[in-house]
Design goal:
Elements (H helix, E strand, L loop, with lengths): L2 H6 L3 H17 L4 E17 L2 E19 L2 E7 L4 H15 L33 H16 L5 E20 L4 E19 L2 E11 L8 H14 L9 E7 L1 H14 L2 H5 L20 E3 L22 E5 L2 E2 L6 H7 L13 E3 L6 H8 L2 E8 L9 E12 L2 E14 H6 L1 E4 L9 E3 L2 E9 L2
Parallel strand pairs: 7-12, 11-16
Antiparallel strand pairs: 1-2, 1-4, 2-3, 4-5, 5-6, 7-17, 8-9, 8-11, 9-10, 12-13, 13-14, 14-17, 15-17
Length: 448
């Protein structure tokens, strides 16, 4: 797609012009404040299964969201039509809706002095010159690599190539208008292995801003096949208490539960197991959580948040102590605090490791459970109660013994966080939280 993709896409300047005209229409209607967000995404996805093309999808999506504030009343409207008539109609609807909403003294734009005055180039745009034929060929190569790896790979759920280029723009009546383009590319494969009447499934994927940074199709297929084969012969465990290691791709979610609990909305709604925890030690002393929104090519990098507030580096957890919450301007006002430029969520959270990679953590654990997949949504963010189905491997004397399935790991997150004894440096970079393997010294493992 690449060059063809760019030719068809609305550029940042065009989106900024749409915002300017929309804000001008809002001002004509006498609103006190207004904000506008516009996006345009063009993408291609190709999925093959067992050597045949299963699906081929092209997307070309535009959208505009308009919010107006009339006093302390708020009205919003959206449309996928960016023509002048459609925009005028949407602004009119937003103004009408504002007449019906309840007054909310905390609503309104972020403070004008917090607007981003210099939009940095974060190197987020790397279009992929990939047409449908090339995408199919790449997916075919990925799946073929998995299917040909071992005769025990008996079936496939397919391989998918996905590429997207998007442009984002935001502006408000403070005079701020900003925009930037970004790309995302993913190559994934899922296969099934079988032996002696046992069948197991696993997958692997690579996801980057720049297609040049993707792992090769062949290596992704091999890793998917290897992971599926490693699950064959899985056993149940007897109920016990033992140490647990989370792989990096699961560790980021484990840390993410804490980040959700310190969000502004969870705090002002009084629905968090880390309620009013700022200033408290919520992790062991060796753990820090750093927010770095300006990492070049970062999957969660942004120059400004969803309200135009300039993003910046900050430390959310230092020496295990929570330094503050993750706040938009609205949630900050509800809590009597200042926005942390997190309208839209946290950006590139990094958990530095205090140990080497997975092998080192397994050696330190000795005997316990290596968790490689979690099943279900058994996390209560109000109480911190944690109970998830788990798949992985049993470890003895620091070495993998045999695969495990049909067990549940459980505990309370407050206690589990305090029980973290090591974090690896083997960070998974495929998401917004960069964290290595995590060793928890004890959890309840429910089995047979």
């Amino acid at each position: 797609m690449g060059q063809r993709q760019a030719a068809q896409s609305l550029g940042p300047e065009e989106l900024e012009d749409i915002i300017a005209s929309t804000l001008a229409e809002a001002r004509k209607r006498g609103v006190d404040q207004a904000e506008v967000a516009v996006s345009h995404d063009i993408g291609l996805a190709a999925t093959v299964r067992l050597g045949d093309v299963e699906s081929l999808e092209y997307t070309n999506d535009r959208g505009i969201g308009i919010t107006v504030y009339c006093g302390s009343r708020k009205g919003s409207a959206s449309t996928s039509d960016v023509s002048g008539d459609a925009i005028r109609e949407a602004v009119g609807k937003a103004c009408t809706f504002a007449n019906y909403t309840a007054e909310d003294k905390y609503s309104g734009l972020a403070d004008a002095d917090r607007m981003c005055t210099d939009v940095p180039d974060l190197d987020l745009e790397h279009p992929w010159d990939l047409d449908a034929t090339a995408a199919i060929d790449l997916a075919m190569a990925c799946e073929a690599s998995a299917l040909g790896y071992d005769k025990r790979i008996s079936n496939s759920e397919g391989a998918t190539v996905w590429t997207n280029r998007g442009v984002r723009a935001y502006g408000n009546t403070h005079g701020f208008i900003g925009s930037y383009a970004k790309t995302s590319h993913t190559l994934s494969c899922a296969v099934l292995g079988s032996a002696d009447g046992d069948m197991e499934r696993d997958y692997y994927y690579s996801s980057t801003r720049d297609p040049a940074d993707l792992e090769t199709a062949e290596s992704i297929g091999v890793k998917a096949a290897t992971r599926a084969l490693q699950r064959l012969g899985a056993r149940k465990l007897k109920t016990t208490r033992a140490p647990v290691v989370f792989t990096p791709e699961l560790a980021r979610g484990f840390i993410g539960h804490a980040m959700g609990a310190i969000s502004g909305s969870a705090q002002y709604r009084r629905s968090s197991f880390l309620l009013d925890a700022a200033g408290e030690r919520i992790f062991p002393e060796f753990i820090s959580v750093e927010e770095r929104p300006h990492i070049p090519k970062g999957l969660a990098s942004v120059p400004y948040d969803g309200e135009g507030v300039a993003t910046c580096d900050r430390d959310i957890v230092t020496d295990g102590v929570l330094q503050g919450y993750i706040l938009s301007s609205y949630s900050a006002r509800r809590l009597g605090l200042e926005t942390t430029a997190n309208a839209g969520g946290a950006q590139n959270l990094i958990v530095p490791g205090n140990a080497e990679g997975l092998e080192a953590l397994l050696a330190e654990m000795g005997t316990g459970l290596l968790v490689e997949e979690l099943i279900g949504q058994g996390v209560n963010t109000v109480t911190g109660d944690y109970s998830r189905g788990a798949v992985g491997h049993w470890v003895e004397n620091g070495e993998i013994s045999h695969p495990v399935h049909e067990v549940t790991i459980a505990g309370n997150l407050r206690d589990l966080y305090a029980r973290i004894v090591a974090v690896g440096r083997d960070q998974d970079l495929r998401g917004g939280i960069r964290c290595g393997s995590i060793l928890v010294d004890e959890m309840t493992i429910a089995g047979s």
